[in-house]
Amino acid sequence: REVAQEENAFVLCTLRTRTAQRRAMSDDDEALFEFARRGKLAGVQELLGREVKPDAFLAYDGSSALVIAARGGHGQVVRLLLERRAALDVHTDDGSSVLVHAVSGGSAEAVLAVLEAKADPNEENEDGLTPLILAGEKGGVDVAKLLVEAKADIAQTAEDWGSALDAAMAAGNDELAAYLSACGATPAGKQGGERKVAAGEQWGYDAFDGEKDY
C-alpha cells in the first residue's frame, strides 16, 4: 500500500509540474507545437523566426514539437527543428526517444534527419522496444536500411515483440523480413504474451484538431 501511495504521489507531482509549465507557456509556444504536429512548415518557420523556442511546449505525454513532428512523419519540419537546436534527448512518458517516434511516423526523411543528429539507433524505451524492432512491424524497408546502416543491432529483442525479424514476420512484412535475413538476422522466437502498445499509439493527438485554428 505504501508503494502504491508513493507512486500515486509521484504521478500527481508530475501532473502538477506539467500543469504549471503549461500555464507559463505562451500562445506562440503552443502554436509552434500545433504547426509541427500538422506538418505546416511555413508556420513553424515563421514562429522560429520570431524566436519562439522549439522545446517550450510539451504535451501531456511529454512530447515536444520535435517528437510530434517526427511521429507525424513530417521530415522537413523535423530537420528544421533540429537545425534550430530542438532537444534530441527528450523522451515521452513510455521512455520512447525521438527516433522511435520517427520510425513510428514512417518517414525515411525524418528518420535520416534524427540519425544525422546523432540519435542512438539502439536506445530502448521502457518496454525494451528499439527503433529497428518497431520498424520491423511497420514494414518500411527504407527506414530499416537507414537504421541498419547506422549500426542498429539486428539481434536485439524485446519482450512480447522478439527481434526486428520476428516483428516483421509476425506483421507479414515479407520484403522487410527478407532484407533483415539477408543482413544476417535470424528469428529469436517471439516472447509469450500480447505485445505492449507501441510508442505514441495510446495518444490520440488528432483529437486536438479543431480546438484552435492556427
Automatic annotation (TrEMBL):
It comes from Alexandrium monilatum. SMART domains: ANK. It comes from the Eukaryota. Pfam families: Ank, Ank_2. This is Uncharacterized protein. The keyword DNA-binding does not apply. InterPro entries: Ankyrin_rpt (IPR002110), Ankyrin_rpt-contain_sf (IPR036770). Keywords: ANK repeat, Repeat. ANK repeats lie at residues 61-93, 127-159.
